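Can anyone check this?
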Amino acid sequence: MVGLSVLLGPLVDASLIIAKWLAVPIKNQYGYLFNYKTNIRKLRERAEDLENSRASVQQSVDAATRNLEVIKPDVLAWMNGVDKLKEEADKVLQKSSTGVSWRFKDIKSRYSLSKKAVKMTKVVLEFQEKCKFTKFSDPPLPVEITDFTHLSYSEGFGSRVSTRTEIMESLKDDSVFVIGVCGMGGVGKTTMAKEVGARAKLENLFDVVVMVDVTQAPKKKTIQTSIAELLGLKLQEESLAVRAARISARLKMLTRVLIILDDIWTRLDLEELGIPFGSDRQLQGCKILLTSRNISACNQMKSDRIFKISEMPLNEAWLLFERTADKTFRPDPNLHQVARDIVEECGGLPLAIVTIARALESENDKSMWDDALQRLRSYDLEGEYASVYSSLEVTYNFLESDEMKHFFLLCCLFPEGHDISIEDLLRLGLGLNLFKKTNGVSEARIRTDAFIKKLRNLNLLSDGGDEQCVKLHDLVRDSGLKIASKNNLVFVVKHGDGLKFWPSKFTDECCTSISLRCDEMSNLPDNLNCPKLELLFLVGGNHPLEFPTNFYDGMVELKVVVLKGMLVQSYPSSFEVSTKLRNLSLEYCTFDKTSDISMIGNLVKLETLSFLHSDVKELPIEIGNLTQLKVLDLTGCSDLFNIAPGVLQRLIHLEELYMRGTLIRWQEKQITTSISELNSLSLLNALEIELSVYDLLPNDFVFKRLERFRICIGFSIESKMFQNTLKVRFPTHWEDGGMEVLFNITEILHLHGWRLLKNTILSEPKRSKFLKLQNLKLEYCDLSYLTEIRDSQYCETTVREITVDESVIWQFPLFGNLHDLEIVRCVNLKGIFSLAAPTDYLKLERLKITGCDIIEEIFLKKKRGQDDKSIVDIELPNLKCLILEDLPRLTCFCKDVTSLVLPQLLEFRLRNLPNFMDSNVIQDIRSSTNHSFFNQKILLATQLKVLSIAKMKMSEIQKHMLPVSSFVNVRVISLSYCDDLSSVALSDLLNEPSDLKILHVESCNLVEVVFDIQTMMLTEDNGVLNSLTNLELEKLPKMTHIWKHGPETFKGFQNLTKLSVASCNRLTYLFSPTIAVVLSNIQELSITECKRMTVILDEGNEREITPNELLFPRLKTLELIDLPRLRSFYLGLHAFIWPLLDSVWIDCCKEMMIFTAGTSSTPKLTEISINGQIHAMEGDLNTDLQRLQQQVNGQNHAMEGDLNTDAMEGDLVLQWLQQQVTDPQWMQQKVTDPQWLQQQSNDGNTSDSSFTSSAIE
């Protein structure tokens, strides 16, 4: 047994080990069966615990999501895992709930479910352990501009699209870091900034785009908080420096970020806010976009580029109004005209347009629209329009002083839409004693200029028609008047038509200023009680207007009286009550023979007296009593021949004297004052005077005291722009009369006929410094004088313009700062500049060369005494205007260079240069020289605005002017007498400009179509040439269509207001229905001498015009002249509604008996011109045209009858001449036979032609 145990022992031990190893799994497997209910219960309990944990986490996630926080990825993964685990657990528990017995068939299911429950419980416990998160979310991401509704804001608005495009290009420019957008309040700066930001993000230019509203009174901590929140950063620190450091650190973590700072008013220190700036900005991908009403703020922020947003043009304003209120008024034609008037009153200000359109979009009652229009016209900006006023009031409150605020309000006294003279503002301010702490008129003028500049910078004022004027937006003016009423400055301003009565209800005791147009008033009121009135501004119509004797009695504080365009019969006695009067302006006034201006001498406190363009005939001795007078303006007093002797010398405080356009007979000293009286005026510093001859100037004249002057001897003063001017014609002698002292401050010098005076002015450079000379014109003078100026160190940097007369011997001086050069008919010139001396032309801004017959090139490479240098390109970096005309031998700019680069060129005019860039001429030169310029190119700037080409070979021009994209911003194109210009070439040229406003095409014999729509670039949103306002086509003999092949959905030409077509004899009609619908803004239409034209509007093969389509609703003027085949404007039955048409001229259109086959409505048309005769309208256009044409035709028939009689009488004469030879008795018998005479009368012109012909022979 022992042996057996020894043998079996190891096997038994092994069996025990195996049994133990197998016992545990077997026990577990049986455990799944016997512990089934326990396992299921544990799973259910643990699953419920996990679900509760999941709900708790979900609450935390929801809270973080509401705060725009970013949920951590592990939290989201856990929640997703729990959701999947719950689905699986629910399946197990669902099956267990059906009941599983110990029956043999359920043992397997009992085992399987129990086993799954155990495993799943383990996983549930693991998920339960992981739910103990320390942090559920991260701070929110930067709140960027994600409102992409702004992407389409500017679409359709050409003025906005072009600005937006330029801003986007600047954002892409690596050299640009700060961009400014400026404009007046309500013009759309913020909207533009939002659109730019949205597009920048969409185009992936920046990773982060944030926008912050800065406001007028910025608080740095508030701005920091806003930026930080937008960057997902929480700032809890109080220190500005620490907060700035954190913001800067956050920005440096971002690769590309755009920060938009909206509504900046003054300089903001960006580094103090934590925004990289200065040298650091180049190291970071951070760019700044600013918006501001104040252009000075943009400059203070060191903006690399500044873009100004102006008011919308009328067509865009109308489109914006349509988009906002379209559902209301478009179906109702009764609202169409009042809507147009409302848009015009808004003056292109988007804020006003949108505000009013939204206020009216649910109104169908026309009276509500009429009320809105009336309120706009009467500056009643309350209620729903208050946002317009409040926006502008914010800018007003920003003005730095009460003095400037009052100055701005003075601008509101002038008629809306009119130019406001800066000189008028100065004199009103002087009269009101507005300029505090100034000494004299010259300092007040400086203050005025400063005010004007600041108001312009704030966009409260805009540029006027010339540099001497400014303009005020109508809504700015209306807001200013409302502001004045809130600040104890009660202004009464009425300059509309039809004011027949004095607005007495406004002129009460609080009124401080009255400005009225009273040209329809018959009389003025008496007993006015205006004790606070300081300014009275009346504009008349040169008709008698009676001033009551007590008119001024109630105006004891009156300081300024301005009467314009009045017929002055007499002055009321109460005028002398105005003892505080400081400014009296009687401008454009007519004085009755009985009117006596001597009483003005009693207004001893008067400081400004103006008779501008009035017919005053003499200044009486009493005017000399005005010893406080500082400004005397006699400009344009062409009837003024006499100033009483002694008057001028008694005006001891006179500082400024203006006498342009007067005809004082200075030489008749016994009749009038002597010009030498001016010598006694020690304070005189401004003088404007015209003298007939040089000899009138006395010795020791007042020249040395003058600061501002325009002195013309033998010339008249022409320009409105006041620049220090000295013009002298044919001086008989030149002595030291003191005029030389003016040369230091002379800006315009014009010398004529100085050939014999070689040892005078220009030969003494040490005495004649010409420090400020801008314009030099020499006629019939010895040019050697300029050689003397050239050698002077003083004139090297001052001469800016030279106009050389044909008789001048050309010895061109070297002016390194020459800005403006005009060369006319210098017949011996072969070239202008030397390439060896580039300083002669580097600063040139304008170059005009005309009528120089032998010039072959502008730049000459070789200069005497210098070696050749290799020059590839010529660049004129500052040239803005280049005009080349009538240069028959000019072939190129320079034979020795490859290209001419003109990066700043704005205006380019070429005319009659037959050999310019001609391939044949160039080829000939190429074969005879080492330097080829066959491929010479003219590289123009993309900002070119004006392109004019006449009598040129267009094929050569287009070949050598590259790139074509140079024309993308051209605003004016004029092409005339270009015989090789084809329709295809014209379409290619017109494909480029996006901002073209004026197009003139004349005498181009190959042009058949001007706009071939199919070949032009069309997009779904943008139309073709939407900026074009003026189209002029003349003498195009092959043109059959202006517009051709346009789809029915074609868009374009939305701003075209004037169309003129003349002498285009292959045109049979002008518009198709598609084009007629597109041209909704046409205001002036003129068609002349088109011999084949039969109708203006023709459907042809296109669709019919629908009854509801408004065609040419803005048409004001229609001219149809010399169209012999014209039958009608339109032969269809469409009803034309032309609410603005007020002028119709029809001349030599003998076939035109009806205007349209349908009806026409022209409420403003009161008369019509037929063949040069003006006729009053009695019915509509159709009936009146038919009636008048029948009258004209009847007159023509009568004239033809007269002509027949004349022809008969002529035949009688011819027969008489012939019969006299053969039968002298024949004529006497015939002329006494009544039957024969009757027969001749009936036959008319049917006499025997052979007989007549033989008689003529």
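Reply from J.R.: I decoded it. Residues 148-310 form a domain with the Rossmann fold fold (CATH 3.40.50.300).
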